[in-house]
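Retro notes, item 3 of 5
We never archived the inputs for the NAP complex last cycle. Fixing that now. Sequence and ligand:
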Amino acid sequence: MTGWLDYAIADFVPFSAEAYWRLIENYSREVWPLHLAAFALGAVAIFLTVRPFPWSGRAVACLLAVVWAWVGWRFVGTEYAALNWAGEGFMWAFMVQAALLLVFGVIGGGLGLGAPGPARRIDLGLAVAAVALYPMVAMVSGRPVAGAEVFGIHPDPTALATLGLAALAPHGLTAMALSIIPLAWVAVSALTLIALGAPEAWVLIAALALALGGLLLRRPARV
Amino acid sequence: MITRRHILGGLAGMALPIRLRAGEDGHRPIPSTGEAIPAIGLGSWITFNVGNDPVLRGRSAAVIAAFFEEGGGMIDSSPMYGSSQEVIGDGLARLGYPAALFSADKVWTRAVDGDAQIEATRRNWGVEQFDLLQVHNLVAWRSHLPRLSEMKAAGLVRYVGITTSHGRRHRDFEAVMKAHPLDFVQLTLNAVDREIETRLLPLARDRGMAVIVNRPFRRGALPERLRNAPLPGWAAEIGVTSWAQALIKFILAHPAVTVAIPATTRVDHVRENKAAALGPMPDAALRERIARDVDRAI
Ligand SMILES: NC(=O)c1ccc[n+]([C@@H]2O[C@H](COP(=O)([O-])OP(=O)(O)OC[C@H]3O[C@@H](n4cnc5c(N)ncnc54)[C@H](OP(=O)(O)O)[C@@H]3O)[C@@H](O)[C@H]2O)c1
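Structure as it came back at the time:
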């Protein structure tokens, strides 16, 4: 991937792949075993989406809000910001996303299961893959287990799972509003990985395409 | 490891069709004062941005230590480079802030935040004051340049400069060079990116400005691409044993250049780069040939 694109993006990525992956690994070691709790939260969010109770939509939105605030503060604001001057700005974007999830979740009635059809399958598939499969990406790419990126701990799988679940919201406006920041983060992250020459970028690009497809294909759900 | 002795020894008795420009000790004068500084400095974009990782911090400190073992000189950083300033400060503190340090940093923010940023930068390095402060990429230069000049007049910084690494900024850059009495300008020059040779380098000479060369290896892409290409016969003439050294000599052979600041994560590379400032430099004809050979080989 040595074209003009990665040369131009490289102007904005002030760290090496080595420093980035080591940051992820060192942070993972520090917060372990929170991964297990975070994974459980991801599984609960998906379960509540698939087998909803009357309060599920709100609960899932609140759960995601907590996760965004935590990842934003602990990883983006504390760890990542040491490598990137833009990190603090990204942290605030994570906080805004947490606030949006709370507002739409508590006041706006929360998330849902969407209408049956291909969009629902794509969105659910994305959320399940982000929680259950994304941790394997590190190993498949030849990085150590400590480099596994986990929903609720690291930003990329958190953003991907949120994209899947947000797109299932009963109202189009909710889905859109809750997708903007995760879409932007995944795009930034994919570009960063391209600049770093990391093949993981393609996983994010494919997921981004799926998420956009899911949003475009969505039909209003029966609430 | 390539030492000065190897190079000078290897050259002894050779009939050289080349001009010696850099002094044998690899120093160059700063035109505005005549102060001599080592012609090879040390960049810090990406290479020293390692956050709080203790292993990578140790590695960075080893590179900085080797840099001073080889004579030290200019270390260049910027508030844009993440944790690099702190990592440099850490490396310097481990060495007790060597006297051979020429500290160069930048201001890179909105006009109103300039003072606060310079102070934060100073604290990150742990120095009392900087030798050189530059306006990074001409950001808010209309406000920062007078600020830096005032600091210089007040004895709070010794030299003032501006930087860029983008061809598209060269017009503005030239205008600032013509209108302001700068000590230093920092620009990109390497065997492939030679735009500044036509106007900006001659202008720097005329105006008595020291020239810092950034991206001497095109961010590492040049030595990487040349890795498997055999070194041409001229390499022995100018006493280089690697493409990296040839690339550095290509830069230092330009009469307007004062210092090149390659960045590296490797102790052997910092020594290799430092050694390239010693010994004979290619003349103008050989310089062109190096550029042609590099172009052909990449
Ligand atoms: N606008 C501005 O103010 C501006 C813009 C750009 C750059 N700069 C300054 O200029 C400095 C230099 O530019 P740069 O860092 O962008 O690029 P560079 O110095 O052209 O290239 C750095 C790369 O070259 C490799 N390298 C160093 N010595 C080597 C050797 N002997 N053999 C093979 N590879 C070698 C390094 O890899 P290893 O780690 O493997 O050695 C590193 O990845 C920057 O660090 C920064 O301080 C300023």
